[in-house]
Structures are given as structure tokens and as C-alpha cells.
Design a protein that fits this description.
Length: 297
């Protein structure tokens, strides 16, 4: 289960405080040491942990907290609020275009869940808005990628524009957009190529697609299981593409959770959705307060 280790360690730190009749500054320091370790072990980015611990400590050692009747409870609330704060406070909705179509470009490393997430988003848009999306298959490098998107399209009842693997991805996107204009699709979801790691050729290709398509959203799909790496990947893609949001996948797995807590602080970009399973309806809006509740257990 996601966050298991982190939840347990945070609860231990709080239980230590609850046992004290009176909580002193030194007790707070001890608890913060435990919380710091818990966050680092959960693979939260080092700078994020440092700032988090400093903020919580400053709020917790005030006399209103320590002299209150329920100091431990108040410290739990301070931690909760700061968890929400680092994850971005409120849910951030999809950017929409004023004129159809709204164009969503999916980017990310191979295996992160881009293609699956494209299908999940399309399905959600159909359910929520009775949308008529078109998906464009612009990953020409992985032979199975086009077929995979076509299959996903069939499963969710969304047409897929594809030209096989012998055309330039920018060309495919250009023709796909023309098709969407002709068919008056209200959303276009572009599935782009991934690689095992960030490389210059991929970034150049994605920049070219971005320039042509002028997407309303560039959603970076990252795998929560990869922890700090997910955060670094987000930083790398954001530097080159100025992404508009992140989808954190595989939160149903045994992830330690660091990426959920780091990405917003490190990139300044919101997590907009989380993937919580392989099925095509396993996608949820990312609510920082609900995630904080889940982390605290
Ligand atoms: P892509 O290479 O980025 O397009 O990745 P895919 O969409 O092909 O996904 C890679 C694998 O991850 C597939 O087996 C998906 O079923 C799986 N996957 C994607 N999202 C999730 C998720 O939220 N949870 C779980 N458990 N698996 C996922």
C-alpha cells in the first residue's frame, strides 16, 4: 500500500508526543527529528524536507501550541496543513481552450503510463462532459505503441488518428489536428514518444510538437514508484517544455510516496491527476488535502 512506511513513522512520532502530559520544545525537536527521517526515507526531496521541518518546527514551538490543552493534536494539525501546503493547497483543474479543441499533450518516460493515462483521461472526459475526444498516436519509435493506443481507444470508445510508424511525429500531429478540426472534436489528446531517460533528441521532438500544436495542457506522466527519480524527471521535462501539470501514476502500488510530496515544490507545477490502477477508470483528481489525510492515516 502506498505511503505505508511514512504513515507508520509519522504516527509513531505523534504517539510519542501524545504520551507526554506537557510537551516541551525539546519534545518537539525529537518529534521533528523523527518526522524528518520519515520523510527522507519516503524519498521526499531533501530541500523539501528541510523546508517542511523548519516550517512545522517554527509553528509548533509557539506558546499557544505548547501551553494548550492538546499540544500533540495541534502539532498533528500543523503537519497536516504543511503537507497540504507542499502539495499545492487545492486541486487544479485541466486548462481548457476557449475554442474547440482543447489540446492535451501527454509526455513522459517510457513505461510511466502515458498511453494508459491518455485513455483514462479520454474516458473521464466522456463521462464528465460527454466530450468527443480524438487521440493522436505520435509515438513512432516503440512499434507496439500505436497499436496499444488504438486498443485503448477501442476500449474507451475514442477514435485514434494514426499514420503508422513511418512518418515524422510533427507531421502526424499536424494531420491529426486537421482531422480533429474536420470532425469538430472538442478534445485532442496527443500520445508522444517516451524514452528510458531524458535525452536531447526526444526533448527536441517534443518541443517541435509543442510549437506546432500549441497545447492547452502539457501533462507529464510520472511513475510514483520511482520516488526521487520521478521528481528529477519532472524537473527535466519542465525545464525544456514548461509543462502545465503532472499525472502521478501507480499510486496503488507500494510507493513510498516521495514524489507526491516533492513535485509541486520542486517544479512549481501542480499534480492534476493520480493513477491508481491498470484499469481505464483508475484515475482521480489530485486533492492535496485528501492526500494529506491518506498520508497521516
Ligand atoms: P507508457 O510507455 O508511458 O505509454 O506506459 P503505458 O501506458 O504502456 O503503461 C506502462 C505499464 O504501467 C502498463 O502495464 C500499465 O498498465 C501500467 N500502469 C499505468 N498506469 C498505472 C497505474 O496507475 N497503476 C498501475 N498499477 N499500473 C499502471
Amino acid at each position: 500500500m502506498a505511503f505505508e512506511g511514512l504513515t507508520e513513522r509519522l504516527q509513531n512520532a505523534f504517539n510519542g508526543l501524545r504520551k507526554k502530559g506537557k510537551v516541551t520544545e525539546s519534545d518537539v525537536r525529537d518529534a521533528m527529528r523523527e518526522i524528518r527521517l520519515a520523510l527522507l526515507e519516503a524519498d521526499v526531496n531533501f530541500d523539501v524536507v528541510k523546508k517542511f521541518v523548519k516550517t512545522v518546527r517554527e509553528k509548533a514551538v509557539g506558546s499557544e501550541v505548547l501551553d494548550s490543552l492538546t499540544p500533540a493534536q495541534q502539532i498533528v494539525k500543523i503537519v497536516h496543513d504543511e503537507l497540504v501546503n507542499v502539495m499545492g493547497d487545492a486541486a487544479v483543474p485541466l486548462n481548457k481552450s476557449e475554442h474547440i479543441p482543447t489540446i492535451i499533450m501527454m509526455v513522459g518516460l517510457q513505461g510511466a503510463g502515458k498511453t494508459t493515462t491518455a485513455g483514462k483521461l479520454a474516458k473521464r472526459l466522456i463521462q464528465d462532459e460527454k466530450a468527443r475526444p480524438l487521440m493522436i498516436a505520435a509515438d513512432i519509435y516503440r512499434p507496439a505503441a500505436v497499436d496499444q493506443l488504438v486498443t485503448v481507444g477501442q476500449q474507451v470508445g475514442v477514435p485514434v488518428f494514426e499514420m503508422g510508424t513511418d512518418h515524422d511525429p510533427v507531421d502526424i500531429v499536424r494531420q491529426g489536428l486537421a482531422e480533429a478540426a474536420a470532425k469538430k472534436n472538442d478534445y485532442v489528446i496527443i500520445d508522444t514518444a517516451g524514452r528510458l531517460e531524458i535525452d536531447e533528441q526526444l526533448m527536441q521532438e517534443l518541443s517541435n510538437i509543442k510549437e506546432l500544436a500549441q497545447p492547452n495542457e502539457i501533462l507529464l506522466v510520472v511513475d510514483a514508484m520511482t520516488g526521487q527519480v520521478a521528481t528529477q524527471v519532472a524537473e527535466g521535462f519542465n525545464e525544456r517544455l514548461d509543462i502545465t501539470g503532472v499525472v502521478l501514476t501507480k499510486l496503488d502500488g507500494d510507493t513510498r510516496g516521495g514524489a507526491a510530496l516533492s513535485i509541486r515544490s520542486v517544479t512549481g507545477k501542480p499534480i492534476k491527476f493520480v493513477g491508481q490502477g491498470e484499469k481505464l477508470d483508475a484515475i482521480d483528481v489530485f486533492y492535496p488535502d485528501r492526500m494529506a489525510d491518506r498520508i497521516l492515516g
